[in-house]
Design brief:
- There is one protein chain.
- This protein has 29 helices and no strands.
- Among the domains are: 167 residues, no CATH class; 75 residues, no CATH class.
- The longest helix has 24 residues.
- It is mainly alpha-helical.
- 68% of the residues lie in helices and 0% in strands.
- It is flat.
Length: 544
């Protein structure tokens, strides 16, 4: 597949200069086709409703923060994986071929800069599936439906014919402007130079459209058609594209970018020696339309590695105008297991972009080298870093990479910080890193009435998930508590335990407690258990 793509792209490059000099105007009329009988009308089907399910909320802020940290990392990994399968190459496409093949003087003579200047861009998406018929009483309704079904089967020539018949047979129909767009779209999909020119003529003649969505799509389709013609040497299309670019009305053609992404990926594999200079040229771009291209180039550069990769990615991480591209670059550096990479990440902790600092800190938390550890601790001690970013960095410590010094440092940091969020993050992460070494420390926090309520609640939540902590210990915490919130946290903790002792303690609280809110919490926890005594206990409480 990649070979076929590359061959096709090379053919376009070689043929482009000739096409430019030999292009001749095409008659403005669409080739005649036989009339098609109008199909039998049928009623429109109502659109199905798709209700959005409600998303339950959680009150466990620490758990949410921890989960979001994991989701963030998973998204970056998934994002990089997707980018690795695609790549975008805009104006530099021909230069890439020149560097990769060195095969023909025709390729070497292509002016990539001029190709960049005529690359059209259309921010609005080009609609690709016609809407269902909406006016059963319209005389063109059945013909429009037939054309729509034909286009959805990708029978482009036949679809273009049917849509044209809608316009010609029923010039007063509600479907006229819609049919014009879809006739032009079908001709664009066929893609010959004549069909492209006819598509552009239809779009130019129609001008305005009844549906707002179609108007936006028509503008985008016109830009796409102009771009295809401009690349084939059509001077009028080149002039119109250049004018649009100068006026600031140019936009990004996502469909075309998707193809160019694959071209970049393929070219980087065909000529490995020329890959890095090619990627560097791509990453030097700063326009908004090449963001997808630059993201793909970052991933490819990281995959290739070598002495040039780290400086290139570091430059992107600190200088690219797109936060998204910078984030991908930082994530790519994080996966490089070298001291130089650790140094680069350390430098990014001082970047002006807080998102870059956040990702760099997350990466450093998962490294084992001493330099990374020192840099991360300095980051956690920096007053200018937000509490949320510090908490996220702490939650990214991993059991596989954490050292005894890390455990000791986090416990010391807990004692020094005034931030409830940072303390909660430390309490959450330490049981994962060293459960045996931190169990008694967590119990002491849970029992200590002088500790902040948020810290005690986080500690209670942590120890309740530790099977080595007996249920009787939770019961003692409840009995010793003298404030409602702590008792409620203990009741929730008892609800998470499956031992019979937890059920007995909840029954005791429900029967004998004096705080109605806490008793209600205990009953709620009991209602989730399959205990045969529950019905009798509830009846007993009702009959009091």
């Amino acid at each position: 597949m990649r070979s076929l793509l590359f061959g096709a792209l090379l053919a376009v490059v070689v043929a482009a200069p000739a096409a430019a000099s030999q292009a001749t105007p095409v008659a403005p009329s669409t080739p005649a086709v036989p009339d098609v009988p109008a199909p039998t009308s049928r009623p429109a089907r109502p659109a199905a409703a798709h209700p959005v399910p409600a998303v339950p909320l959680t009150h466990d802020v620490v758990a949410v923060t921890e989960a979001m940290a994991g989701v963030s990392e998973a998204l970056h990994i998934a994002h990089d994986a997707v980018l690795a399968t695609h790549g975008v190459l805009e104006g530099e496409l021909h230069l890439a071929m020149e560097s990769s093949l060195h095969a023909t003087e025709a390729v070497r003579s292509v002016d990539a800069a001029s190709l960049v200047s005529v690359a059209p861009v259309a921010r609005a998406a080009v609609a690709t599936r016609p809407p269902q018929g909406w006016s059963p009483s319209d005389p063109a309704d059945s013909l429009y439906r037939a054309a729509r079904e034909t286009l959805n089967r990708s029978e482009y020539r036949r679809a273009a014919q049917l849509f044209r018949q809608v316009r010609e047979r029923h010039p007063r129909s509600e479907y006229v402007s819609e049919a014009a767009y879809w006739e032009a779209f079908a001709l664009y999909r066929i893609g010959s130079t004549d069909d492209l020119r006819n598509a552009l003529r239809i779009l130019d003649q129609q001008g305005t459209y009844a549906r707002k969505q179609t108007q936006a799509s028509a503008d985008a389709l016109s830009a796409r058609v102009l771009g295809a013609l401009a690349r084939r040497g059509d001077s009028d299309a080149q002039r119109r594209v250049a004018t649009a670019a100068q006026s600031g009305t140019a936009a990004c053609d996502e469909e075309d970018l998707m193809v160019r992404v694959e071209a970049l990926n393929a070219l980087s594999q065909l000529d490995q020696a020329a890959a890095m200079p090619l990627l560097r040229r791509v990453l030097e771009r700063r326009d908004d339309c090449s963001k997808s291209l630059r993201r793909s180039a970052v991933t490819l550069a990281a995959r290739r590695g070598g002495a040039e990769a780290l400086p290139l990615l570091t430059e992107v991480a600190t200088a690219d105008p797109s936060t998204d591209v910078r984030s991908v670059a930082v994530s790519s550096i994080a996966r490089m297991e070298t001291d130089d990479a650790a140094g680069a990440l350390e430098g990014m902790l001082r970047a002006s972009d807080p998102e870059v600092r956040r990702i760099a800190a997350r990466a450093l938390a998962r490294r084992t080298d001493a330099r990374s550890r020192r840099a991360l601790r300095s980051y956690l001690e920096t007053p200018q870093v937000s509490e949320s970013h510090k908490a996220e960095a702490i939650l990214n410590f991993h059991k596989e990479t954490a050292t005894p010094d890390d455990i000791a440092y986090l416990r010391t940091l807990y004692g020094r910080t005034d931030s409830d969020r940072i303390r909660s993050a430390i309490i959450t992460v330490l049981p994962r890193l060293a459960p045996d070494e931190t169990r008694q420390w967590l119990l002491s926090i849970a029992r200590d009435a002088n500790q902040p309520t948020s810290s005690r609640s986080a500690a209670i939540s942590a120890v309740s998930r530790d099977p080595a902590v007996p249920v009787v210990e939770l019961g003692r915490m409840y009995d010793a508590a003298n404030e409602r919130r702590i008792r409620e946290y203990v009741v929730s903790a008892l609800g998470r335990r499956e031992e019979p002792e937890a059920t007995e303690k909840l029954i005791e609280i429900a029967r004998n407690g004096t705080d109605p809110v806490v008793r209600s919490s205990a009953i709620n926890q009991l209602s989730r258990r399959k205990d045969p005594r529950l019905q009798g206990i509830l009846q007993e409480l009702i009959d009091r």
